[in-house]
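Q: For a teaching handout, I want to show students what a protein-ligand complex looks like in token form. Below are the inputs, and the small molecule is zinc ion. Please produce the holo structure.
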Amino acid sequence: MFCPYCRYPDSRVIDSRTAEDGAAIRRRRSCQECGRRFTTQETVILMVAKRSGATEPFNRDKIVRGVRRACQGRPVTEDQLAILAQRVEEVIRSRGLGEVPSQEVGLAILGPLRQLDEVAYLRFASVYRGFESLADFEAEISSLRAAREAAREAARDAQSKRLGGSDDATAHGLDEEWLAAGEVLVRGGNGSGQGNGNGNGNGKGT
Ligand SMILES: [Zn+2]
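A: Here is the structure, written as tokens, with zinc ion included.
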């Protein structure tokens, strides 16, 4: 690596130590020409294996671009997208593999996206998991509703324990908004055939 100060192509390693819990090695170097010091870091490049068999380095920007498309018109900020991509990378890296199939990357997006925005999640899942019929959307929406209902129950239990009463004023408004969003999806979600045969029968409705 060239010296960042004078571009001289050779340097001497003064010190080497592991960093980031063993996921990286940092080297303190001294330039042979100008004598200045700098630090380099070596990490494993996480590779993603595509269906074609080709591999490419994992790229957070690519995650952001894919998810941003699903978030069009939704109240999701760039910061939230960046955090989501970071979480996806953490999940994948925590498996300790140097290479993961691209499907795993998609799967790792589903969870955080579902928490971030349910409508965007449905759009993404419909393409990624190759939804082909209204029934696929219905099953996914039922599953989302069930999860939401369970969360609401839990919140209500906690609240009534605290306040000794229950209050469900927001429920109807949410349901209406949800239905409208579902309709748009069902009409719009059909054409973009990225469905490379993945996803059928792999855990719809979970
Ligand atoms: Zn130098």
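A: Two things your students might notice: The pocket of zinc ion is lined by residues 3, 5-6, 8, 31, 33-34, 36 (CB under 6 Å). The chain has three domains: 11-43, 44-130, 142-174.
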